[in-house]
Amino acid sequence: MFAWQTPLSNAWQESLVSSARAQAMGVDSLLLTGATGFIGGNLLVTLINVGLVERIVCLVRGASVADALARLRAAAVRCGLPHARAQRITEANVMVGELGSAFSEIDLARLAKASHVINCAALASFSTHPQVLDTNVHDTLRFASHFDGSKALRRFLHVSTAMACGTQCGANVQEAPFGYGETRHLVQYTRSKREVERLLRSTYPRLPLAVVRPSIVVGHTVLGTLPSASVFWVFRVVHGARRFTARAMNRVDVVSADDCARALALLAVKPSLAFDTYHVSAGSDAPTIGQIIRAMDEATGTSGRRYSMCRARDFGRIAREVVGRERCGSGRLIEHALRLYAGFAELDYTFDNRRLRDEIGFEPLPFTDYVSECVRTSRGVGIAEQMRWDFK
C-alpha cells in the first residue's frame, strides 16, 4: 500500500447521510433536474437513501410519464440503488419536461410548491455542440424564472463546475462568486457555466441561490466506472502511454460522484449556509499525475517505463497506439480529446474546499484510493467506448 493511501472508511459518508436525514425533515417538496445524468443520478440515490423519496419531483425528458419513469429508475439502478428500492420511484416523482419547457398549469403549480430546487441539468459535453449555450444559459435562466419571488422556495442549489473559473487563475482557485470580466476557456461548456452563474445572480437577485462547483468528477468509490466512464479513459491512456504534456508533479483535482452527491444533498437541505458559493473538490489533497500512475500500476499489477513529458504533436501517435491503425476515425477523435484534457492538466489547478470542509465536514475519498475500482470495472471496455461519455 502506498504512503498516500488510506483505509476505506465510511465515517464521513455515514455522518453526512445521518445529518442529511435529520435536516431533510424541513423539506416540503424537492425538485431535482438532471436526475438521469451522472451527478444527478447519484444525487437521486442519496436523496432516496435519506428518506426523501415521497417528497422528490424529478424533471425528466420522455415521450410520456411512463417513459420518463423508466429512464429515472434505470439511472438510479445504474448509480447503485437496488432494483427493489427503485420500484419505490413512481409517477408521482416525475414531471415530464426539460429546463426550457413551456409547463402546463398543473406542472406550474407543482413548481410553485417546491421548497428546495437542485439544478443538475446541463449539456455537459466537451464537444462543440451547438446547443451548449442554449441549454446551459438560456434554458437554465428560463427555468429559474419560475421561482423568482416564490414564497415557498428556501434553497435554489445550482450545480456549476469548478473549471468555470477559466484559464487565468492562480494554482489554488478560491471559492467566490465570479466577477463580470471576460476570461479564457478551453471549452464552450465551462464558458457557459460561468455565464449562467453571473446571469442567475444579476437577473434574479431574490432567488435563494447557492452555487456549487464540483471539480473533475470521476468514477464511484464502490461502483467504479459503471455509472459513468467520463474522464477515466484519459487516465487509462496516460497510464498506458506513460507520457503526457503535463509534469508528473502537476495535481489533478478529482472527486467521486458519490462523494459529490452526498455533499450536494446536505448543502441543499441544510437550513442555513455560511456562503453562497462552494467547491466540491479534493483541494490541497489532490493527487499528482505521478501518484495516480503509480496507483494504477498497483491496481493493474503492472509497471511500465518511467513517466515522461511529451509534446502535443505526439498525441496522434499515442492515439494510434490506443486504438490501432485500422480505426483511424476513433484515433483522430482521441487525439483531439487528449489535446483538450492536456490543456486542463497543464493548468495544475487545485480548487480550495475549506468552505465545504467547515460547512459539512467534507472528507472525500482520495482518487488514488478508489482508482482500483475504476480499473476493475473498465476491464474489457475499449477506450473509444468510454470516451463517448464526454463527447455526446
TrEMBL record:
The family database entries (Pfam families) matched by this protein are listed as: NAD_binding_4
Limits of the Thioester reductase (TE) domain: 32-263
Q: What protein name applies here?
A: Thioester reductase (TE) domain-containing protein
**Organism listed in the record:** Paraburkholderia haematera
Q: What is the lineage of its organism?
A: Bacteria, Pseudomonadati, Pseudomonadota, Betaproteobacteria, Burkholderiales
